[in-house]
Every structure is written in structure tokens, then in C-alpha cells.
Amino acid sequence: MRKKQSTIFNKRNMIGLFIILIMTMSVLGIYVGSGSDTSDKYNGFKFVQAKNGFLTEINDKQIIFYNHPSSLEYIFFDNVSKDILKNAKMLIITFDPADPAIQEIELTRLELTTQLQQFANIYIITGISNQTAPYAQFPLITCANATAYQPVIYFKTGETTAITAEGSCITAAANYIGAILTLKDRIAYQILGIMN
Hints:
CATH class of the domain at 74-191: Alpha Beta
Oligomer: single chain
Strand content: 25-35%
Helix content: 25-40%
CATH architecture of the domain at 74-191: 2-Layer Sandwich
CATH topology of the domain at 74-191: Chitobiase, domain 2
Number of strands: 10
Radius of gyration: 26 Å
């Protein structure tokens, strides 16, 4: 006599149970994965971690930064610089084209210009601190050109990472090349009211 196969553990039922198990695990994975939102609030602004940095909204427009504001609290930012930036309607960004961090400074200059014009309605002019061939079209601007109505931000590498002012000239110095982009974020956060 032939043995009767069990109706629960036959081949067809096992394949069906396997497919149901996979579908259930997929739904659970999506549910659990959606709960791992990497967003948090900083000074009333909601930040969401994205592939390229941290997203927040200002006036219903998204803006992205490389660094979360809490990771920039260590940067020294003197009160004179903060006061200059608080009232600025126009800024002049200058740099030395021979600086070893020229690529990061260029990226910083372009991104800060875009962010401040779009989100803070600040007019930006770019200059250079010494005449160099590829930048001959830029005006020669140093800290000597800084005024209360046209403050200068001078990006450069230095011994420490800090944002300091002398008169109406703000020096944003980075002690390593990668810190140039952190200075850009810190200045933008200050002007946009995200950090104080």
C-alpha cells in the first residue's frame, strides 16, 4: 500500500508558505525601516540626514548642508563676526588663489553665494587677495577693502579653525583642507538663524 502524503507539508504547500514568509518579511522590513528616520531638531529646525549631508527647510524651501549644526559647535566664532553677519545685506568673499585648499575654497565660495542669495537675500561679490592668472577677472579685494556696509569674508587655511573679525573683515581660517566646508556651513547657519 501506498503511504498517504501529509497535506500540510507537501511540496506545493511548502512553496506557498515560503512565498508568504518572504512577503511578510518584506512588509515588516519596510515598516521597521521607515521607523528609523534619522531626523532631529536643532534650534527649532528639523534636520534629516540625506546621502549628501543634512536637509532642512527655510521658508518652505529645502537646503542641504555638509554638517549637522551640533557638529560645528566647537568652531570658535567671535561675537564681532556674528554681529557683522547679522546685519549684512551684502558680503564680499575673498581668497588667495595660491592657497593649498583652493578647490575647497572655490566650492565653498560658490555654495555660500548660492545659499545666501537664495535663502537670505544677501548680495555676494567675489574677489581675490592677490592677482593670479586664472583669476585675473576677479577684483583685488583684501581686508583693507572691508567696510560696515561691505564686509569681507576671507577664506584661508591657517593654524586653527576659527571665524574671527578685525574691523569689518571676517577671517574664516581652517587648520586642514576639509575644514573649509565646515566653515561655510557654520557661516550659513549663523546668517540663516539656525545657530547663534
